[in-house]
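Recall the central idea of this unit: under ordinary conditions, the amino acid sequence of a chain determines the structure it adopts. In this exercise we apply that idea directly, starting from the sequence alone.
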Amino acid sequence: MPLTPGTYQLLTIQSRQKAGYRLAAPDGSTVWVPSEQAAPGWRPGQEAEVFVFQDREGKWAGTTQKPKIQLNQFGFLEVKSLSPFGAFLDWGIAEKDLLVPHREQPEPMQAGLSYLVYLYLDPASGRLTASGYLQRFLDTGPPDLALGEAVDLFIWEATDLGVNVIVNHRYKGLVYANETFVRVRLGDQRQGYVKAIRPDYKLDIQLHKPGYESVTDAQTQLLHILQAAGGFLPLTDKSPPAEISRRLEMSKKVFKKALGGLYKARKVRLEPDGVYLNQTS
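Accordingly, the structure predicted from this sequence is:
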C-alpha cells in the first residue's frame, strides 16, 4: 500500500544516522525522521508510528509531533505568514507550514488570524493543501448517524437560525439559536448530539445530552457551580432565562428540572433570594 501524506503510518526503522532515522514503508519508499522528531529509544528493526508528509523538496518526511489537522479533516489554524503563493498555516509540524493557495481562500487571509480550513490532497500536485471553501468537502448524502448519537463538532458560522457546525469532519449541522445556551466561537470544538435528521439529510444538533441524561448532567454541573460560588447562587425558578443561560450555560427548563431533583434529594434549599447548598452536599 503506497504512503499517504497527512496520515499516521506504521513503518520499520531501517537505519540510524547522525541527524536522524530512515524508516521503510511496505511499498519500498523511505521516510526521513530528524532526531528531534523521533521518539526516545528507537532502534533499527523496530516498528514506529509516525505522521508522514512531504517536505519542501517533495521528499517523504515523518514526525512524532501531533498535527493539528490530518488528511480529510477540518481544523482551525492560524496564519503564520503570507507569500505570493498564498497563506501558510501553523498545523503543528515544525518542519513545514501548510499552504492555502489564493484560489482556496474565500477572502484574503491575514497573518495572525485563524481560519477554519479543510486538508485535502491536491490531485494536480499530489501535495497536501488546505482550503477555506468548506462546503464542497461536506457529505450531502444520507448521514451514517443515529438520533441521539454523540458527535464531534466544529463551530462554523452564525446564521439567522442559529449556528452552523461541522459534524464528525463530514456533515453540516445546525444548532438553533434558541437552543444555544453556551458561549460558542468560530473554531470551537465541542461534543454535541443528533437531534433530528431532516428529509434533505441535513442535521439538527443539540449541545446537551437528550432527555433525562441532560437533567442528571445539569444537576452535577449545578452542584459544582454552587460549591465554587461558596454555596449560594442568586437564581430562582423566577429568574430570567437569559440570566440562567449566562451564569450556568443551560436552559431555564433544564435548570428548573435539575433544581427540582436536587431539592428532592435534599442537596439544596430554595430561598426567595436564591439557591443554597446544604452543608451535607
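The first strand starts at residue 7 and ends at 16.
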